[in-house]
Design goal:
This protein is an alpha/beta fold. It has one domain. The chain is 51% helix and 14% strand. It has a 7-stranded mixed sheet with strand order 1-9-8-2-5-3-4, sandwiched between helices. Helix 3 packs across helix 5, helix 4 packs across helix 5 and helix 11 packs across helix 12. The chain is globular, with a radius of gyration of 20 Å.
């Protein structure tokens, strides 16, 4: 399946050339105009993909039942605009020299990661908020020897270019969906006292743990909790916010120490604790999250599983 899925085809190459052309156009524009243009284009895409945009609105309404239809619509629109803004920011930031980059993307708490690097190692806990790719670039510029766990995209030309840009200031990528035993590759990396960034706030297709998220059952990968407990490395939650002037500020929060004993219950509880950070960030700024993704795609499957395995459903006390 993977062999056919990631084949190089003429159509893939044409897609890649089109993307390269867009990237060249973005780089020619001033930073703020590029971001403004990207936001306009991705926001306008909602008119071409009405079904997906409607699903975004429905998901927001279920997560925030107290909000009015007007508020829900505005959150969805801003979230879709953010997609184009992220793309434009990423392309512009990867073409900057480090001293210029730091004017557009700042990091607070970088000393926390640098202390862990070479001593304990650590896992960067970040989600699809604001501009997660910008933090990956910023961490490398500030001296972090980090890797990221990512999903390979179907187009191999686009995937290689994305990976090149993602690591243009340093770092490497492990693939969760096209790598020989990625969990053990991450373990070897952490064993060297390095840092690895993991995003698991999107739908998983396998290895799931059913956890309530914004009041609904969602499938989450336990990989961050598993790695943290098995390797006894801290987890550093990281959030990114966009300032009024358009610059980005990445905030590295205090480390989370994993349970000392490995057990299924501890993995489950620690994963739930990490999910709570996503909920906190989402409630603080709902429009910054990637609502276009079908996060609760397997909700019915999860509910069916929990009916058959009620012992795995979080109790009211555990959910607090």
């Amino acid at each position: 399946m993977a062999e056919t899925r990631f084949q190089r085809t003429p159509f893939h190459y044409l897609q890649f050339l089109a993307l390269k052309g867009v990237c060249i156009g973005v780089r020619l524009l001033p930073y703020r105009l590029a971001v403004k243009t990207g936001r306009f284009l991705s926001g306008s895409a909602r008119f071409l993909t009405r079904k997906r945009f409607k699903r975004s609105c429905n998901d927001i309404a279920k997560a925030f039942p107290e909000k009015s239809p007007q508020e829900i619509h505005q959150i969805a629109v801003e979230s879709w605009r953010n997609i184009g803004g992220i793309f434009a920011e990423f392309i512009k930031l990867t073409s900057m020299k480090p001293d210029v980059f730091k004017k557009y993307c700042r990091v607070e708490g970088m000393d926390k990661l640098l202390r862990a690097q070479g001593t304990t190692g650590g896992i960067i806990h970040i989600g699809h908020f604001t501009n997660w790719e910008a933090f990956g670039l910023a961490a490398s510029i500030h001296g972090a020897d980090k890797a990221v766990l990512a999903q390979r995209v179907d187009n191999p030309y686009v995937d290689e270019e994305t990976n090149r840009l993602r690591n243009i200031f340093g770092g490497r990528t492990f693939y969760s969906n096209h790598e020989d035993r990625p969990f053990f590759a991450c373990m070897r990396w952490l064993k060297k006292k390095n840092l690895i960034g993991i995003l698991f706030d999107q739908n998983t297709v396998s290895g799931e743990m059913w956890i309530p998220f914004m009041g609904r059952t969602a499938a989450f990968s336990p990989i961050t909790a598993l790695l943290s407990i098995k390797m006894q490395v801290p987890v550093f939650p990281v959030t990114v916010r966009r300032e009024k002037d358009g610059t980005l500020t990445c905030v590295i929060m205090d480390e989370l120490i994993p349970p000392t004993e490995y057990s299924n219950k501890n993995v489950r509880l620690f994963t739930k604790k990490l999910v709570e950070y996503y909920e906190m960030w989402l409630r603080q700024d709902p429009a910054s999250w990637l609502w276009a993704h079908n996060r609760w795609k397997r909700e019915a499957e999860g509910e069916a599983y929990l009916r058959e395995h009620p012992e795995e459903r979080f109790t009211e006390e555990e959910s607090k």
